[in-house]
Amino acid sequence: MQNILLKTENLSKSFSNGGVMQHVLKNIDLELYQGDFTVIMGASGAGKSTLLYAVSGMDTPTLGTIMFADTEISALSQDELAVFRRKHCGFVFQQIYLIDGMSLMDNVLSAGLLVNKDKKAVVDRAKELFASVDISEELYEKFPTQISGGEAQRVGMVRALINQPEILFADEPTGALNSQTGLDVLNTLTEFNNQGQSVVMVTHDMRSARRGNRILYLKDGVITGECNLGTYRHGDMGRHEKLSAFLSEMGW
């Protein structure tokens, strides 16, 4: 039986837009499991990114509770949430947000040293992660503007993983990349997941979604369906057909 890593109860998020309340998430009960590659799909405006930001502690729900292991993160202050995210969560976005004035290595160390003051240990882990995503040593002192978009996204993954997070959250991580560099990023995410890293990814892209073992479909702020694909295997056309049928049923 899988361990529950994160659980929500009656999770809701509303915004006021010109005095009119918009209910983006509606009473969502959700369990995320250790070791899963969970994919959140749905049409534009369904609330996918809002859900990801809420469960990761980047945004505060209007109602409901979020339990991350034994911590009720929905009850934490903003300062407490910031500390919690550094220690327990990693983030990969469509926009990579590397700091242009810092080298690639310093971008990673700046995140790692916030949690671990042992610089040698942080540097050693950074080098190990860089090697795992095919970033060579001669690039360590390069700046973000001196590397390709695919390389920058892989550096972003190193930064996201430097503190050994329980969950890696990814919001459209291939959305700004061309086909080949996007594939490289998906292969890297899959490899980390195969090593036990829990991943939660928002995407509208079928190719990306196929990497997940669990697909959640969000419509108008409600999870309306779930598809379990099992472990990803390259070239598994049955996987593609199963996901296509599920998305068609959901009205994709």
Description:
The protein is globular. Strand 7, helix 6 and strand 8 (198-202) form a beta-alpha-beta unit. It has helices at residues 48-55, 78-88, 104-112, 119-132, 149-161, 179-194, 206-209, 237-250, and strands spanning 4-17, 20-33, 37-41, 63-68, 71-72, 89-93, 167-171, 198-202, 214-219, 222-228. The strands form two sheets. Strands 6-7-8-3-9-10 form a six-stranded mixed β-sheet, sandwiched between helices. Strands 2-1-4-5 form a four-stranded antiparallel β-sheet, with helices on one face. It starts with a strand and ends with a helix. The protein contains eight helices and ten strands.
Helix and strand arrangement:
Elements: E1 4-17, E2 20-33, E3 37-41, H1 48-55, E4 63-68, E5 71-72, H2 78-88, E6 89-93, H3 104-112, H4 119-132, H5 149-161, E7 167-171, H6 179-194, E8 198-202, H7 206-209, E9 214-219, E10 222-228, H8 237-250
Helix pairs in contact: 3-4, 3-5, 5-6
The percentage helix is 25-40%
| Low-pLDDT stretches | none
Label the overall shape: globular
Number of strands: 10
* Class from helix and strand fractions: alpha/beta
Our count of helices gives 8
Q: How many domains, as an integer?
A: 1
| SSE order, one letter for each helix or strand | EEEHEEHEHHHEHEHEEH
Mean pLDDT: 93
- Can you summarize the main beta sheet? 6 strands, mixed
Query: What is the highest CATH level, the class?
Result: Alpha Beta
CATH topology: Rossmann fold
Gyration radius (Cα, Å) is: 18 Å
> Mind telling me the CATH superfamily name?
P-loop containing nucleotide triphosphate hydrolases
How would you write the strand order of the largest sheet?
6-7-8-3-9-10
Any guess at the CATH architecture?
A: 3-Layer(aba) Sandwich
